[in-house]
Amino acid sequence: MDNLESRIRALEASNRRQRYSITALAAIIVGGAFIAATRPAGDATFDTVTCKKWSLVDKDGKVRIGAQVRPNGDAGMVWTDTNGKTRIGVSIATDGTAATAWFDKDGKMRIGATTSPDGTAAMSWLDTNAKIRIVACTDATGNVILPTSDLTPKP
Domain 53-145 belongs to what topology? Predict the structure, then answer.
């Protein structure tokens, strides 16, 4: 009988310890949830963010600015309007060519600028049909080239 009573006391003590442990764990979980719920979402500051791609979204979750490094090593960044159309694109190719393009509301390129590793630089203006109308460039030796294309007004 003494053995049975000592076993019951041991079980009661073990049960008491488990209740204290469960109560403490529940308090920690509730406290953590309270802190997470009341902690204001806001500005964050980072010294460095390392990633292969990132997107900046508006209040509706639409991507407005995106940047990525493609598998071939080219890097690019785009700015889009509220309709999802690319309006500005910037890229740097692995060969060192850098380019920027501006697009109209219909997604057609209207202005383009490039620089090449050989020293060539160019700027192009295109019409609404994406036909190049004016180009201003310098070649690798510094010569200036200003060709124009079909500038006659259309009836």
Answer: Outer Surface Protein A; domain 3 (3.90.930)
